Amino acid sequence: MNLIEVKDLTKKFPLGRWTKKALTAVDKVSFAIPEKPPKIITLAGESGSGKTTTARLILGFIKPTSGVVLWRGKDIWKLKKEEWLQYRREVQAVFQDPYSAFNPLFKVDRVLIIPLKKFGMASSDEEAYEMACKALEIVGLRPEEVLGKYPHQLSGGQRQRIMLARAFLLRPKLIVADEPVSMIDASLRASILNIMFDMKNKWGVSFLYITHDLSTAYYISDEIIIMYRGSIMEMGPVDKVIEDPMHPYVRLLIDSIPVPDPDQRWTERIVLPKVELSQVVEVKGCKFYDRCPHRMDICAEKMPKLVEVEPGRKVACFLYHREAY
């Protein structure tokens, strides 16, 4: 059984009050996260690809224009009050900015204790405090060093660990982590990712990891979904997609990553044409057509479907399944 499943998820934002044109941020996106075994699934892509909007739709922060988000087979926007509260507890979020997640007027204890009281998971202040201490230890923090302090007294890495502890406190089944290490020092990123890895292996927590950094995605993920202009270009096991990309966009994305070796320099500069706003709004064929080095006539006329090309791997490109059309 799937824990979360999105089907033809679409979100359009109007471009202005006096126009009917709309920007399609997410365009018929479909994928699933199983309940067992727990997995870390990465949603990757460049800025503006629609990955964060997809995360907000899954979290229920915004309603889709069309399509559904299913939680254990039920549309989240049709859940009863009790079911919605359970969904809110079991699907948690960790955001990019470890600074704005805290109210600077309150001590950090507040973000740990209030959720426990809200969801009735602690019968007393003492029990809540004890649960908070255990959660902090799980994410590698000493309770005596962080509890009782204000946010400005802690580092960015400590604050992000506290947010992971807060999410973990509610015993979630899924944590949506939106760029959780992008504002953390490079020396601390691996420690945050390792905490996520331990939560998956030791506590059975799945993650939807949102990032533009393919190196961290490759390090931590089981599967990866590559998005471009609101659509899924390729998805599958992370090692296969990163080591042997099939979609032309994903190939260029991988090729743009520099190798940390001064003897291996780029032989040529990758230059892609700029995308005009009008092309973003109205797209008839493949969204990557105007920038694709392998484009064909059919690419300008039809939008390629996301088709399984091998077990567990899907690609939206006519190079691999023209016969399906």
List the helices and strands and how they pair.
Elements: E1 2-14, E2 22-34, E3 40-44, H1 51-59, E4 66-71, E5 74-75, H2 81-90, E6 91-94, H3 109-118, H4 125-138, H5 143-146, H6 156-169, E7 174-178, H7 186-203, E8 206-211, H8 214-220, E9 223-228, E10 231-237, H9 238-243, H10 248-255, H11 277-281, H12 297-301, E11 307-310, E12 313-315, H13 318-321
Parallel strand pairs: 3-8, 3-9, 6-7, 7-8
Antiparallel strand pairs: 1-2, 1-4, 4-5, 9-10, 10-12, 11-12
Helix pairs in contact: 3-4, 3-6, 4-6, 6-7
Give the radius of gyration. Answer: 21 Å
Low-confidence stretches: 276-281
Q: Main sheet?
A: 8 strands, mixed
Tell me the distance between the termini.
Answer: 31 Å
State which percent range the strand residues make up: 15-25%
Report the helical percentage.
Answer: 25-40%
How many distinct beta strands? 12
Number of alpha- plus pi-helical segments: 13
* Element order: H for helix, E for strand: EEEHEEHEHHHHEHEHEEHHHHEEH
Protein described:
By secondary structure, the protein is α/β, with parallel strands linked by helices. Helix content is 35%, strand content 23%. An 8-stranded mixed beta sheet has the order 6-7-8-3-9-10-12-11, with helices on both faces. A 4-stranded antiparallel beta sheet has the order 2-1-4-5, covered by helices on one side. Strand 7, helix 7 (186-203) and strand 8 (206-211) form a beta-alpha-beta unit. Helix 3 (109-118) runs parallel beside helix 6 (156-169). The longest helix has 18 residues, at 186-203.
